[in-house]
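Researcher: Please predict.
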Amino acid sequence: MASLEARIRVIEGVDLYDPVRAAKICLVPNMVVLKKFCVPEFIKYTETQCSITYHKSYCNKMAEVVHDEKLLMYFF
């Protein structure tokens, strides 16, 4: 019975949102976002656009935090 319960937990993903595991898979570890920071709206990149122009637009919109490389990577 215990092994069946364990299998059900695995299948249902009971521990799916375990905060310890979530921190391990974070793309930009140890990043802190200030509560007052408001993320600008971005147009989603499509392959029909010029990638250089798109990246310049992103950097211009994120100008206030351009010194914080982790924050730039996280929201990109």
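Model: The CA atoms of residues 39 and 75 lie 8 Å apart.
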